[in-house]
Design goal:
Blueprint (H helix, E strand, L loop, with lengths): L5 E7 L3 H12 L4 E5 L6 H4 L31 H15 L3 E3 L3 E6 L4 E5 L2 E10 L38 E5 L3 H12 L3 E6 L4 E5 L2 E6 L8 H9 L4 E5 L4 H11 L3 E2 L1
Helix pairs in contact: 1-3, 4-5
Flavin-adenine dinucleotide binds next to helix 1, strand 2, helix 2 and helix 4.
Length: 259
């Protein structure tokens, strides 16, 4: 890409938000380019854990102008969603440039200079659609430097292989924490879930009961059922809000996993 290039709009990120923005710009005949750091659209979704299934039904998970095909289950798998994103790019012929890591966006007097590894691009407007997964937050926990086990963020987790028989602490029981914890427990890891507040045990038909640290809702049912299935293999640990308390727990158990 040459420095001479200039667009009315540059969209940074080819995930669902960037692609939806691009489709709407195209519909309005506004010239633009989507810059994606990965090798294809949906890079985040291509690299999340294998077993990930959307928690939002497919009717709530579409981008503007295109439904999922009838053959896709009500809760699409990660692979279904990636295929959907790739198809979306094809159907709407979106102008996506892959392998373009945006390193800076700076005002230049008349608009913006978007800096990439391959050169600079001028833009009148920039849409940042880089998502949250590309900037995972690992809280600093006192005592972590003394912990000798492996510490990883949930965005690095792929599959349970290698964790059988190991003691794992999952910190945080949102959708990813709940799913990863239950998957590991079902695989034979000894899992402790650290929950900041007490967790509710609720009825979730057709399964008998479920527990989750998040608000019970219809969209959470899938993750909730998975947690339910492994309830007898999971140990829950309610942490006060203090990180110090998590650190003491880590020192006792010598395993920690952040989510
Ligand atoms: C485990 C998990 C499960 C989820 N399940 C659901 C669900 O069921 N339903 C739901 O609605 N939401 C779900 N979400 C939330 C989900 O992240 C968002 O719905 C959706 O992916 C956000 O889209 P996005 O385009 O904003 O971000 P992303 O999907 O993260 O896309 C951002 C894109 O920007 C690119 N990028 C980042 N930085 C740069 C850069 N500097 N230069 C160029 N490109 C860059 C990335 O490679 C990526 O392709 C889930 C999230 C996680 C982590």
């Amino acid at each position: 890409m040459s420095t001479a290039e200039r667009y009315p709009v540059v969209v940074v990120g080819g995930g669902p938000a960037g692609l939806a923005t691009s489709a709407e710009l195209r519909r309005r005949h506004i010239e633009h380019v989507v810059l994606e750091r990965g090798e294809s659209a949906g890079h985040t979704w291509m690299n999340l854990y294998d077993s990930l299934t959307l928690h939002t039904g497919k009717h709530l998970s579409t981008l503007p102008g295109m439904s999922f095909s009838r053959s896709v289950p009500f809760f699409p798998s990660r692979r279904d969603f990636v295929a959907y994103l790739h198809r979306y790019v094809e159907v709407f012929e979106l102008p996506i440039e892959t392998g373009q890591l945006v390193t800076a966006v700076e005002p230049n007097g008349t608009g913006w200079t978007v800096r990439t590894d391959a050169g600079d691009i001028g833009a009148n407007a920039v849409v940042m659609a880089t998502g949250i997964v590309s900037a995972p937050r690992m809280p600093s926990i006192p005592g972590r430097e003394r912990f000798r086990g492996r510490v990883m963020h949930s965005v690095e987790y792929r599959r349970p292989a290698g964790f059988q028989g190991r003691r794992v602490l999952v910190v945080g029981v949102g959708n990813s924490g709940g799913e990863i914890g239950s998957e590991l427990a079902n695989f034979g890891a000894h899992v402790t879930m650290a929950v900041r507040r007490s967790s509710d045990i609720i009825t979730a038909p057709p399964a008998p009961a479920t527990t989750t640290g998040t608000q019970p809702c219809r969209n959470g049912m899938l993750a909730a059922r998975q947690i339910t299935a492994s309830l007898n293999r999971l140990m829950f640990y309610s942490t006060p809000s203090s990180r110090q308390s998590i650190a003491s727990h880590m020192q006792c158990r010598h395993r920690m996993w952040t989510s």
